[in-house]
Structure formats: C-alpha cells, structure tokens
Design goal:
With 254 residues, the protein is α/β, with parallel strands linked by helices. It folds into two domains: 142 residues, Rossmann fold, CATH 3.40.50.1000; 92 residues. It is 47% helix and 13% strand. It has a seven-stranded mixed β-sheet with strand order 3-2-1-4-5-7-6, with helices on both faces. Helix 6 links the parallel strand 2 and strand 3. Helix 1 crosses helix 4. The protein is elongated. The two termini are 14 Å apart. This is HAD family hydrolase.
Length: 254
C-alpha cells in the first residue's frame, strides 16, 4: 500500500463536490427510472404482458448512445437528459408501445421527482465520510442551489457527518467554481489556509484547477473510469486521481 498523501498534522479540512462526487446521478436515475416504469407499464400494457424493465432499460441505454452526437467528446449528464424523451420513444416503439410527447415529458418529470426523493450515494461514501470525520473536518464546495443540494444530502443521510454550516454553494455566494472567490470564502469561513485543505471533485476544470489556482490540494474523483489510483501534475502540484471511495480513503492517514 502506498504512503498516505494527507495527514491530520498537515490537512485540517476536506471539501467535497456534491453531484458526481458524493451523489451518483446515474445510479439514482436508473433506480428512479425503474420505479416510474413499473408504474407506467401497467397503463401501457392494457392488461397484457409488457416488456421487463431491464429489457426496456437496456434498450433505452442503447438508444441514448445512438443519439449521442459524433466526435468522441465527453457526454455530459445534462446532455444525456435532453435526449431522454427521444431515446424512450424509440425504445417503446421497438416493443410495440408508444407515449405521446406530453406523456414522455410526464414520465421524466416523475423520474426527476423520484431522484430528488431518493438520491443515491456512490458505494463506500458513508464509510469514507464517517472515517474521515474522525480526523478531519468535512465541508462542501458546490455549484448549485443551497436548499436543493442540502435537501439531497439530507435525504442521502449525509447531515452529519458534514455540518450544514460547512457547506458553501454558488447559489448563495453568486460565485461559481472555478472562480477563486468561492474557494477563498470557504477557506476563510473554515479558518484554514489553502495548503491545509483538500478539494475532492469530479470536474478537472471546476474542482481540481479551481482549487489548485488558490493553492489548495486537490483529488480528482473519476468514478467508473476503471483505472486504478494514479497521479497527474498541474505545474509542480501533484494531483491524486481516484476511481472510488476506497481509493480516496487510502490517501488519508486515519
């Protein structure tokens, strides 16, 4: 096992991004999709057998991929969401089913509501935050609306170990990552110097570079990339890159 990158003597605060770092929107969407589909399928089938949700889900994912614009550019979550109605319409057609535009919109409206009610954490998040909170103070620096983001974290069971007063959101500050202002504000409120804090986030530009530019430490969280822990550099600053919470936890002396 490699030597821990961060120790309690040197690091006092660990900040996290929310979406795609603590919360897993893809898995949350999948679970919400299943719940809503099972409700809708009864009305679509008209008393007859209809496709299993897993078959619908697999077809839906294939249609999503087919609708993705060419070019190999990263597929952002917001762009996937825009393709959802067309992908589901194509999926249902393959199974001899159909929904009108209004019903498709209603379907994904219900999916969004289900996601808000039951957000899903990345595997190991509970364990990681509980362990880290024994030696480090935890906080959040996130782009988004404070009430919505804190409600998601509360629903996911993460208040505590992350105290609400240690959460800093762009919606309340009028400053979005990677703007240095939001990072400096969080550091000042937590009473620590930049080199005493670590930012953990999934965005290279917003989280990693934003933190490094104010001289904070940073960890790039790249869930699902199927690549074990490695390091990159920004100038002379070493950036640990992790694929899951277990690898993240290994970076810290506990």
């Amino acid at each position: 096992m490699h030597k821990a990158s961060f120790t309690p003597e040197r690091i006092k605060v660990v900040f996290f991004d929310v979406n795609e770092t603590l919360l897993d929107p893809a898995n949350s969407f999948k679970q919400a999709f299943r719940s809503v589909w099972e409700d809708f399928s009864g009305r679509l089938s008209r008393g007859e057998d209809t496709a299993d949700w897993q078959d619908i889900w697999t077809s839906f994912q294939a249609e999503q991929k087919a609708l993705r614009p060419p070019g190999g550019r990263r597929d952002f979550w917001s762009e996937q969401v825009k393709r959802n109605p067309a992908a589901l319409a194509a999926t249902l057609k393959k199974h001899g089913l159909s929904l009108g535009d209004t019903a498709l919109e209603g379907f994904f409206g219900k999916v969004a509501e289900a996601q808000e009610r039951s957000p899903v954490l990345f595997p190991g998040t509970d364990k990681a935050l509980s362990a880290l909170s024994q030696k480090y103070r935890l906080g959040v620096i996130s782009n988004g609306i404070q009430t919505k983001q804190t409600a998601r974290l509360r629903a996911a069971g993460q208040l505590p170990p992350i105290r609400e007063e240690n959460m800093f959101f762009s919606g309340a500050l009028g400053s979005r990552k990677p703007d240095p202002l939001i990072f400096r504000h969080a550091l000042e409120r937590m009473g620590v110097r930049p080199n005493q804090a670590v930012m953990v986030g999934n965005s290279w530009t917003k989280d990693v570079l934003g933190a490094v530019h104010v001289h904070m430490n940073a960890v790039w969280f790249r869930s699902g990339r199927k690549q074990k822990h490695f390091r990159r550099k920004v100038g002379n600053t070493r950036i640990d890159v992790v694929e899951n919470m277990e690898e993240l936890l290994a970076l810290f002396e506990l």
